[in-house]
Structure formats: C-alpha cells, structure tokens
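Trying the structure run again after the queue cleared.
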Amino acid sequence: MALAADKAYFTLPHAIQEFKVNLGFLPALWAGEGDLIFVDDVYYAIKALSQIGKRHADVLFVTANDLRHLVFSAIEPWGWDKAVRQQLSDAGVNPDVLPADDTLEYIRDLSDRRQTCALLTVLRKDIEDVTCGESFYYKNIDAVYDSLRKYGKIVAKAPWSSSGRGVRYIERCITPSVDGWIRKVIERQGGISVEPYYKKVKDFAMEFYSYGNGRVDYRGLSLFRTGGSNYTGSIIASELEKSHMMSEFLSLSLIDNIVERLKTYFSTSFFKCYKGPLGVDMMIVVKDGGCGYLLHPCVEINVRRTMGHVANSFGTDITDPTQLMHIIHDVNYKLKFGYIENNFVKVL
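Done. Tokens:
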C-alpha cells in the first residue's frame, strides 16, 4: 500500500494500524541478543510476546519517544518505503542510517510486479516441460481485453499492492466495475500486470536474504495456506519435513534447481545491490488433463520480510512436531500455533 502511494506521509487503514499495534512484537522472534524493537505500546508487546510461548532473544522494546535518544548501527524494518523512513526521521533517528531517495526508488522498482516477467523467463529456461507461468505488463486496457480473449480466464494485478489487494480474477468478460478499476490502475501506476489463470493445488515460497554485495543466502521453503489470495497461515517444520511434503508433487531436484537459479539471479541481476530479506511466491499447478503437476516458479517477488521468514526463524529440528502458525482476530490480532495431526489443526 505504502509503496503504491509512494508518499512520505501515508495513513494506514484502521485494520492495518490495529495489526501493527497488536503484532509489533514479531521482530523479537528473529532479532539478535540486545536488539531494540520499535513498537507502539511496550507493555502490550511484552505481554503479547510472553503469551506465544516461543524462544526468543533478550530484546528491548522502545517507542517513538525513545528513538531520538538512541544510536543505531543499522535499522531493519519489515520493508522499506517513504512512509517508514519519514516516521523514523520524525522520531529523531539519525539520517545516516536511513535509506536515501535513490535507494527507496530502487526498492520500489524491485517491488513492481512487472519484475516477475523477466524472472519467469530465466527460471523456466530449458525446463518448460515441468514448469508453467507467464506474466505480461500492459500500459493500455485494450491489451487486457486481448489477453482475456486469448486465455479465457486471467488474473489482473496492480503493480504495487499488498495481501491480495489490487488483484482481480476475470473470466469470460470484463464487467464495467472491473474495467473502471483497470483503467484507474493504469492511470495511477503506469500499467497493469496480467497472467493466465492456473489451476492451483498448493501455495509455497522460497525465502532468501541478500547482502547487497552479490552474496545471497537461501533461507528455506515456506509452506503456507491462503484463503482466496489472502494469507491464512504458515507451516513450521524442518527443511527435511517440508521437502518431504513437496515431494508428493515435485521432484526435489527441480526444487534445488530453482533455488540455485534464484540465488544466481538475485546476486547478478538488477537485484544484486538490494540488501535485506526476499521471498518468491510459487504454486503447484495441475497439468491439463489432471495427470501430474507443474511448478509455477514465480507468482510474486516480495522485496521485504514475509511470514515465511518468520516461520523459518524458529529453527525446528526433524524431531519437532509440525505446526501451523496463523493469525486470528479475537478482539485483537493474535499469533497462534497449532499442531498438525492427520491434516487437522489442534489449536494450542
């Protein structure tokens, strides 16, 4: 949302503000010893963190009123945009540790959904028989209509949006309201991404960390659940267990191949100067005729931390039971964990 607005001062919707207050403690789950966590309410953060019962580093929660009195070697938000930088600047943070305008513009460009077009070409080269996926970027609505006529069912996406917002599923015809939405997206954001609709059977992602100097580390698989296009929960399990789950649909050699291609791409392409967490959303698709599966290796690129990074931060062992980490809204937003037994979730 903030990337789409591209403004220094941006008011979050009420639900997102509530989410931010209730789950502001989350960075404590991957922070290092002695790190400072910026939250809206220290008492609430301490209480919420204590209630989830997970191991975490010894951290200190601070508010905006504390920031001007502190010195930081580095700042790592969930993701950078102009609004985040402005909030920190207004709180008195030294500008030397905040990203410059050109860095923010670079991150915004990386976050543009048109980046999937180029990446899909690289990822699918010479393995088209076991993969699928196309993505197009259009600057006029006539091209969207042409795409619908060609594929019959398409997915239109605003270049910048979040958590399923800015996505429309279109089948057979474009209604007047969707036509107006497409025109507005093109007018405000310069274009629109369009993809054929694929019959999905499973969502997952691969998580990475880029050091901004050509080094990119693979941080593991992220198996998650969605309701429509919205995130509903992440699987917490060892890498061996997650690979076993995926082997029902895909060969592990294909997964390893895509990991290496992504590491190479992020370390040598337009992404190589980016420093921070990355994630690539993917999906398993049923082949035409229903016999077998294909890998769609790039539905979306997340140039920020994701809930997959959070789930993988627990560092589980093969002997640990598989869990589902999910967020509920019960008066407040809460992070919950449940053991997965025979495809049923037992909430703790």
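Residues 30 and 45 are 15 Å apart (CA to CA). Worth checking whether this holds up in the mutant runs.
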